[in-house]
Amino acid sequence: MKQFLADHFEFFRQFRQRFETTGSIAPSSRFLARALCSPLARVGNPATRRPLRILEVGPGTGAVTRKVVSLLGPNDRLDLVELNPEFVTLLRGKLASQPGFAHAGDRVLVHQVPLEEFQSDTAYDFVISGLPLNNFPPDLVQKVFDAYFRLLGPEGTLSYFEYMAIRPLRKRIGPRPERARMSAVDAIIRPHLDTRRVRKDWVFVNFPPAWVQHLQHTAEDPSAPAS
Ligand SMILES: C[S@@+](CC[C@H](N)C(=O)[O-])C[C@H]1O[C@@H](n2cnc3c(N)ncnc32)[C@H](O)[C@@H]1O
User: Fold this and answer.
1) Which residues does ligand 1 sit against, CB inside 6 Å?
2) Which residues pair with 161 in a beta bridge?
């Protein structure tokens, strides 16, 4: 309970200092974490399946990371890409000594870098993202999606969330520049959802409630990296 409150306090502090990149007043619920990790949970017994490469983007205080870590097999690798140095320090501390994280500390690497600049020589089986896309300018959303599909392996699954109905609402209500930004963001995201979405989950037990989008490369996808 003490840790839960400490995480919520730190998250709220970061929300006040860095609203645009933190994107929310509270960490994700365990129900949202479970939905984001459902494709990973479905690939089978972590002890016997093939080793996997997993990328989590925007782990924050580790609300989703805790679930990912619980699903790691002995030879899996998890990369965490986090922009905010305060969250990076907190995550490294958890991976060094906190129950629920530390048992997998040797399989997890924290990278302090914006996703759009992150380079990796491996294609990921799973990309799990908490980036607040609806807060971003359109050119950043474009760069984020380019990075998602550059890093995702040919058979991989990208899972990310967005707060329910925010984009459709903010496209219609509010100041004109904000409506224009939201429409431009929607024009970037919509084609990905139309062509690459394999599933959408509705998570009501979260503040605010969220949609989880699961996407994969299409067969004709020119950006699908070689195995
Ligand atoms: C909505 S919070 C999600 C935190 C956590 N995944 C959760 O669900 O509780 C967004 C996170 O993305 C991080 N972030 C924002 N922009 C980023 C970027 N360009 N690259 C990497 N991380 C970023 C923020 O610092 C923050 O930790």
Assistant:
1) 21-24, 27-28, 57-60, 63-64, 81-84, 87, 114-116, 130-132
2) 212
CATH superfamily of 2-12+24-215: Vaccinia Virus protein VP39 (3.40.50.150)
Ligand 1 centroid to residue 36 C-alpha, Å: 14
**Structure-block tokens of residue 130:** 């908490």
> What's the burial of 18, exposed, middle or buried (CB within 10 Å: 0-12/13-18/19+)?
middle
pTM higher than 0.85: yes
Query: For atom 18 of ligand 1, which residue has the closest CA?
Result: 114
User: What's the gap in Å between 61 CA and the centre of ligand 1?
Assistant: 9
Structure tokens at 134: 């609806």
User: Residues 57-103: pLDDT tens digits?
Assistant: 999 999 999 999 999 999 999 999 999 999 999 999 999 999 999 99
Domain coordinates in residue numbering, the chain: 2-12+24-215
